[in-house]
Amino acid sequence: MTFGLLSSAWPGLLFGFCFFIGAIPFGLLIARVFKIKEFRRTLPQAASRPHLAEVAGIWPAGILSVLLDFAKGVLTLVLLTPVGYRFLSKFIGATGELSGLEESITLSWAAGFFTVLGHCLSPWLQFRGGKGVAIVFGVITVLSPLASLLGLIAFCLALIYSRLISLASIVGLMSASVTYLVLNPVGTQLWVGAVMIFLVLLRHEANIDALLEQREPKFVPKF
């Protein structure tokens, strides 16, 4: 009886956990730790803010921000979904059975979506936030490491060629998404994934407009 109630309530609890994990404003916390006032002034007023690496430099603030956001996507799946548990078991050698909860790719994509949604609409930032690219890469890393790797390569090549973080992010995201689509069977999860990708692209609306008008500032690496 207890397990039946848990099973029926679990998706809602899962999505709530994912939303609030995604909502943790690591960028703002890092900016406060390193006293980066230029970045903090854009929060929460700016709906489309620059990445911390563009304001404070690549190391340490920029790298920490990317890694922590990436970890949101990885950890919500690894710790909260059966698919994530199976992914983790490859590295720790776990052989225990899943707790009876259905191993659902669609559920995992939905968990990723709510993590991104929390990141983009964080209650701690007056329902504003980041753009969610690093989190999506974290989710795809668990579901398809090869797709994530190819997306990362595409991101790096686009950044080196264009020196535009927004363009590189979009190129990397789309490359990873298309690779996942090629490597995996079509199913309901693709609709959930498509909504998540659309949300991230929507968060880049101002950047896309700037790219089309050739006024997007180039990224100048700072350390």
Describe the structure.
With 223 residues, this protein is mainly alpha-helical. It has one domain (2-212). 71% of the residues lie in helices and 0% in strands. It has helices at 2-22, 26-33, 37-40, 52-56, 58-80, 82-92, 105-120, 133-143, 145-162, 165-183, 189-203, 205-212. Mean pLDDT is 80; it is low at 1-7, 43-48 and 96-102.
SSE order and pairing:
Elements: H1 2-22, H2 26-33, H3 37-40, H4 52-56, H5 58-80, H6 82-92, H7 105-120, H8 133-143, H9 145-162, H10 165-183, H11 189-203, H12 205-212
Helix pairs in contact: 1-5, 1-7, 2-5, 5-6, 5-7, 5-8, 7-8, 7-11, 8-9, 8-10, 9-10, 10-11
Core attributes:
single chain; 223 residues; mainly alpha; 71% helix; 0% strand; globular; disordered N terminus
What's the total helix number? Answer: 12
First and last CA, distance: 57 Å
Low-confidence stretches: 1-7, 43-48, 96-102
Helix content, binned percent = over 70%
Q: Element order, helices and strands?
A: HHHHHHHHHHHH
Strand content: under 5%
**Roughly what is the average pLDDT, rounded to an integer?**
80
Number of domains: 1
- The total count of strands amounts to 0
Shape annotation: globular
Radius of gyration: 18 Å
> SS-based structural class?
mainly alpha
* Main beta-sheet annotation: none
Give a brief outline of the structure:
The protein has twelve helices and no strands. The protein is mostly helical and 223 residues long.
